[in-house]
Amino acid sequence: MNWDDTAPPTAEDAALGAPDRLVGADADGEDTAVEAALRPKDLEEFVGQERVREQLDLVLRAARARGATADHVLLSGAPGLGKTTLSMIIAAEMGAPIRITSGPAIQHAGDLAAILSSLQEGEVLFLDEIHRMSRPAEEMLYMAMEDFRVDVIVGKGPGATAIPLELPPFTLVGATTRAGLLPPPLRDRFGFTGHMEFYAPAELQRVIHRSAGLLDVEIEAEGAAEIAGRSRGTPRIANRLLRRVRDYAQVKADGVITREIASQALDVYEVDGRGLDRLDRGVLTALLKLFGGGPVGLSTLAVAVGEERETVEEVAEPFLVREGLLARTPRGRIATPAAWAHLGMAPPQQAGGSGQQGLFGA
Q1: Exposed, middle or buried: residue 80 (CB in 10 Å: 0-12, 13-18, 19+)?
Q2: SS in 3 state form for 184-224?
Q3: Which of 230, 232, 236, 281 is catalytic?
Q4: DSSP percent split of the chain into helix, strand, coil, nearest 5
Q5: Which of 69, 84, 234, 311 is catalytic?
Q6: Is 83 a catalytic residue?
Q7: Catalytic site residue 336?
Q8: Where do the record's region annotations for Large ATPase domain (RuvB-L) lie (predicted)?
Q9: 202-268 adopts what CATH topology?
Q10: Which of 173, 197, 203, 346 lies deepest, with the highest CB count within 10 Å?
Q11: CA distance to 267, 273, 302, 316, 319, per residue, from 305 (Å)
Q12: Contact 261, 223 (CB under 8 A)
């Protein structure tokens, strides 16, 4: 989050400050603790992301064969897809220690200089949310990545002196949820760039079965499929739902997760068959019932739902758009025919082929 009291809150800050959601992809304290136990330790154990995994395996094997430090790696993709896990696997595969920090924590060039000057040779520096790093620190990172040195400015004004500081070779692993915000000079300095895709249901079932084994939870294949179908293509959400279904199975049943138990548990937690939660359905319901499916402005829609504009735009809309339930148009937000079908409602008839019929067809 933005800790600078003099700076206005960003849309991302508002989204991060939104109430906790069971299907939210951002990690909370409990997620961080559990993920440490469930996190795979090597590339063979890592489930999904086949293309990125294969490419990264070649990069790391070649570096080990040369006895050199691995190239800098940029991982992009939505939260919860395994960027942090892959950074730890990179360190493990290279037999190197890892240092973890984040872009928002580096607000001054001196913050970055302090971290870089304490790195060991071959160490992996994981920089999460790298696109949120301050511009002065970003410019210092250019030279550190390319030449393994930084210039430390001593003094102020005309008497200021730049002292070059040599750095040991290291590997920077940058992670970002918004690769488009990275300036080209920074992107170009990464030797390998991998984009993390959302997981298919079959891949999520493998993740759930693996996690269930580590958590000592008995789960049937149909139960895993039910959880996977509501996990929004994200392993972090799948593991979180698994833990909540485990609680339900222990309290309300014999501890075994079947399809019926999983469905009942997730209904209790208000996660429907497509992974929509209360906020998602609230946005769609307001759009359909109050505004006839739209178009309607974002601010008006947010007021109708009783949420902040940024919460609707940054937290709810991305998944609804990806699922084809909502569309952003120059005239405002509109519901698609799939949204009407999902909520079991019939769209109103549009006169003269205008409105939604004109946008989506009869």
Answers
A1: buried
A2: HHHHCCCCEEEECCCCCHHHHHHHHHHHHHHCCCCECHHHH
A3: 236
A4: 50, 15, 35
A5: 84
A6: yes
A7: no
A8: 19-199
A9: Helicase, Ruva Protein; domain 3 (1.10.8)
A10: 173
A11: 21, 22, 5, 11, 17
A12: yes
- At the topology level, CATH places domain 278-360 in Arc Repressor Mutant, subunit A (1.10.10)
The answer on whether 281 is annotated among ligand-binding residues is: no
User: Could you report the per-residue pLDDT of 37-81, keeping only the tens digit for each?
Assistant: 788 888 988 998 999 999 999 999 999 999 999 999 999 998 889
Strands (E), 52-181: 73-76, 98-102, 124-128, 149-154, 161-166, 171-176
Active site includes 53? no
Residue type, 107: Q
pLDDT at position 30 is 61
The answer to whether the CB of 223 falls within 8 A of the CB of 258 is yes
User: Is 236 a known ligand-binding residue?
Assistant: yes
Is 51 annotated for ligand binding? Answer: no
CATH topology for the 49-195 domain: Rossmann fold (3.40.50)
66 annotated as ligand-binding: no
Tell me the two tokens of residue 215. 């958590």
Question: pLDDT tens across 80-134, in order?
Answer: 899 999 999 999 999 999 999 999 998 888 888 889 988 999 999 999 999 998 8
pLDDT tens digits, 187-242: 999 999 999 999 999 999 999 999 999 999 999 999 999 999 999 999 999 999 99
Has residue 344 got a pLDDT over 80?
yes
Q: State yes or no: is 236 an active-site residue.
A: yes
Instruction: Report how far Cα 145 is from the mean position of its chain's Cα atoms.
Output: 25
Determine the average pLDDT of the residues in 263-278: 91
**333 appears as a binding residue in the annotation:** yes
Is residue 69 flagged as an active site residue? Answer: no
The full set of domain ranges for the chain reads 49-195, 202-268, 278-360
